[in-house]
């Protein structure tokens, strides 16, 4: 079946689709929609921002995404808006008019991306409850004209939009999968976990793609061939969220932007960590399960979830199995996922009343940057004694990893500065980090220990600067 999506209210069907073709290229070179620009081809600058709509709760939920790293089949069952979609009877949208009158555009190259991010916020899309500056963290202006752009976003912060007809169209096309052949390779868009499990039983070598925030760069920068591909964005089961008194259970396909408020309720540090995972466009595409399944040693999500005691459920055509999240990561580039298996869900226990938690990432740039070190601490303190400890780090080893010696130095000891110092010293024997462009081995060891010290200081009421935590 063809890739089917809605563009400006019109149903578009593409019979022959290269599964590694990007939405950006199709817009510019096949549809003549050149307002969407390519700036970086890696999802960092936001010049290529478009809005993708999904049928949810009887309406349409719009999300700003980077079209430069969105594969064309990922549009199947969705709606699309580009900067050309915003024309009103006067030929210009109120937001665009405000930006023009406010001097919000200089060279103009990045302007369509800013317009689309701000428009998504104004119509109540993902991120509409966020400050303008947070919504635009994933949009870069090389002329540095941020002041007038922010002012325009704050001036036009609400725009009416009637998507009733589009919601009806989406309800029809969203529940049907798609598949195709290109260059001898197959690609699939399943719509249920049962269908996904069946496909993986037949094609255990298939590449699974959820948000493509990492895999997209394999193609745009590495020019890699992906072979058989299965796109997961239409599998409704994987987007389920269940919140109970005991735990938060997330389907592996839950986007980070959608999980943000749930994570923040588990603990404010976890909410702040998620807020800094890329720009909004990245969080609108990237999924919690994809961040785990990818197995990156510098992924921000896994260290925090490991420290909180998360469990992972994997599924295949033959059944399910559950494991502690830390056991999933075996070595660099190697995870405990058998042929035919996929990550189905993540269960995160709700912290107890005696939990002392600190989660932080250190990066060279505060927003939209990869971590040099990400540390997560979860201590149980009862009557002044540390009775349990879970300490995990990213960026310190070949995988996200617990700090066993540090934990041993904490458990059974009084919750005191002396204990924290002893555990910080033990931490140096837990890891032998690499030196790379994000930081030296010595820097990582020192800042990892400092994160533990910050936990102690914060518990003593000492204010820790958020910006200070960005650069270690």
Q: What is the alpha-carbon Rg in Å?
A: 23 Å
Number of strands: 20
Averaged pLDDT, please?
Answer: 94
Which segments are poorly predicted (pLDDT under 50) over 5 or more consecutive residues? Answer: 467-472
Oligomer: single chain
Strand content is: 15-25%
Straight-line distance between termini: 51 Å
- Largest sheet entry: 5 strands, mixed
| CATH fold naming of the largest domain | Ubiquitin-like (UB roll)
Structural class: alpha+beta
CATH level-two architecture of the largest domain: Roll
The general outline is globular
CATH homologous superfamily label of the largest domain = Beta-grasp domain
Total tally of structural domains: 3
CATH class of the largest domain: Alpha Beta
Helix % is: 25-40%
Which sequence of strands runs across the widest sheet? 2-1-5-3-4
Give an overview of the whole structure.
Strand 1 and strand 2 form a beta hairpin. The longest helix is centred in the C-terminal third of the chain and has 19 residues. It is built from 18 helices and 20 strands. Helix content is 32%, strand content 23%. The protein folds into 3 domains: 176 residues, Roll (Ubiquitin-like (UB roll)); 112 residues, Uridine Diphospho-n-acetylenolpyruvylglucosamine Reductase, domain 3 (2-Layer Sandwich), CATH 3.30.465; 117 residues, 2-Layer Sandwich (Enolase-like, domain 1). By secondary structure, the chain is of the alpha+beta class. The chain is globular. The strands form 5 sheets. Strands 2-1-5-3-4 form a 5-stranded mixed sheet. The C terminus is likely disordered. This is Xanthine dehydrogenase small subunit. GO terms for molecular function: xanthine dehydrogenase activity. Its EC number is 1.17.1.4. It is an enzyme of class 1 (oxidoreductase). Keywords: FAD, Flavoprotein, Iron, Metal-binding, Oxidoreductase.
């Amino acid at each position: 079946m063809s890739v089917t999506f809605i563009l400006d209210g019109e149903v578009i069907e593409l019979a022959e689709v290269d599964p590694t073709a990007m939405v950006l290229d199709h817009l510019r070179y096949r549809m003549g929609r050149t307002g969407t620009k390519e700036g970086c081809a890696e999802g960092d600058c936001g010049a290529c921002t478009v809005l993708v709509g999904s049928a949810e709760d009887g309406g349409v939920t719009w999300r700003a995404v980077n079209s430069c790293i969105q594969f064309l089949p990922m549009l199947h069952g969705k709606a699309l808006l580009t900067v050309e979609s915003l024309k009103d009877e006067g030929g210009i949208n109120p937001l665009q008019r405000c930006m023009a009158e406010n001097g919000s555009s200089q060279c103009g190259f990045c302007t369509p991306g800013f317009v689309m991010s701000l428009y998504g916020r104004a119509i109540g899309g993902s991120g509409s409850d966020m400050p303008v500056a947070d919504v635009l963290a994933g949009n870069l202006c090389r002329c540095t004209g941020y002041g007038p752009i922010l002012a325009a976003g704050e001036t036009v912060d609400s725009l009416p939009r009637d998507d009733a007809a589009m919601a009806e169209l989406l309800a029809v096309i969203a529940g049907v999968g798609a598949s195709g052949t290109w260059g001898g390779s197959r690609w699939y868009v399943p719509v249920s976990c049962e269908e996904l499990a069946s496909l993986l039983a037949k094609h255990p070598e298939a590449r699974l793609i959820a948000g493509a925030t990492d895999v997209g760069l394999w193609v745009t920068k590495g020019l890699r061939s992906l072979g058989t591909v299965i796109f997961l964005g239409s599998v409704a089961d994987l987007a389920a969220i269940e919140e109970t008194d005991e735990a938060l259970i997330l389907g592996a396909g839950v986007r980070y932007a959608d999980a943000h408020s749930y994570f923040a309720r588990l603990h404010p540090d976890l909410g702040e960590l998620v807020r800094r995972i890329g720009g909004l466009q990245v969080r609108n595409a990237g999924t919690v399960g994809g961040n785990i399944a990818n197995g990156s040693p510098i992924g921000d999500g896994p260290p925090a979830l490991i420290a909180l005691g998360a469990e992972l459920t994997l599924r295949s055509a033959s059944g399910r199995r559950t494991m502690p999240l830390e056991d999933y990561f075996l070595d660099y580039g190697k995870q405990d996922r058998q042929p035919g298996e996929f990550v189905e869900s993540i269960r995160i226990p709700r912290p107890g009343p005696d939990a002392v938690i600190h989660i932080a990432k250190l990066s060279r740039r505060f927003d939209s940057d990869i971590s040099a070190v990400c540390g997560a601490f979860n201590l149980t303190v009862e009557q002044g004694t540390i009775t349990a400890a879970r300490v995990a780090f990213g960026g310190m080893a070949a995988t996200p990893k617990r700090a066993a010696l540090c934990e041993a130095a904490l458990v059974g000891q009084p919750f005191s500065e002396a204990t924290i110092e002893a555990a910080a010293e033990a931490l140096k024997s837990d890891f032998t980090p690499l030196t790379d462009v994000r930081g030296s081995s010595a820097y990582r060891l020192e800042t990892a220990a400092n994160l533990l010290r910050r936990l102690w200081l914060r518990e003593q009421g000492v204010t820790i600067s958020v910006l200070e935590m960005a650069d270690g």
